[in-house]
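dude i think i finally got it to work??
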Amino acid sequence: MTILVTGSAGHLGEALMRSLRAESRWARGIDIKPSAFTDMVGSIGDRAFIKQAMSGVSHVLHAATLHKPHVATHGNRDFLDTNVGGTLNLLEEATAAGVSSFVFTSTTSAFGAALTPAAGEPAAWVTEDVLPVARNIYGVTKLAAEDVCELFARKSRLPVVILRTSRFFPESDDDHDIRSRYSPENAQANELLHRRVDISDVVAAHLLALERAPAIGFGRYIISATTPFSPGDLAEIREDAPAVVERLFPGAGALYAERGWKMFPTLDRVYVNERARRELGWQPRYDFRFLLDCLRDRREWRSPLALDVGSKGYHDEVFAEGPYPVG
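look at this
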């Protein structure tokens, strides 16, 4: 049983390859860039290359994509060719090869403008039932790729699971205000409350999806750390998030102060992973409670896998604002 991993030189692709190799599972990594985890170098936009890469493959983990930080450096056609055309090539060749499961890595960014409530409204409670409103070409193409995946699941009976992952990258935030007010570690710790997930938990979700896809047929799931909030907290976290956090986790503020950290004053959304936990049997470990336990015990709060993969950036060029070409 060979598992094809696309984007094997990227954050998630490398994490998947590391994990599969550690379990001595047959895995073939493909990417446009050579790496220690890339077995075949080529583009998912090249149908002939994908046909060759699919030989002997039983399962597909499709993580390759152009990301949001590429919006400023790549054209719309690049996004269509990679995110939609590349996914179509993989689906067609996976169907022809009779693969047993196809897992597509999507993004919570696909929800787009639906994530931002109007002024004075409570924070958004984001489940899989929220209707996306794409904000840019990245969101448009990820949603289009999801639709093509669903089409193949319905028409070709290809077992497909879509995982809308929240943030797991270690790079600084792409928002200038966040970068100027919070260290990357502080900001990412805060995000575990509502919009971040450790890459180790992301890998676990993908491997569960790979196994369960044949029984599910087609499914779409949010993959984010389990939030401590409930719908009853949404109005208050939009007004005073630190007060809610301290109520739920007495002493959290003191632990933050010891590190010179501060909580975001308000939160505008909460990603809800309940369906993934229920239907995939996913049990994410790295949540905000785990973070606080680590701070209390002076332990590392990120997973060993996250530290091993490290920071990769999104471009070969280094920009004035760090990994991003615009602020």
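Strands lie at 2-6, 26-31, 40-41, 57-62, 101-107, 124-126, 160-165, 218-223, 269-271.
im so relieved honestly
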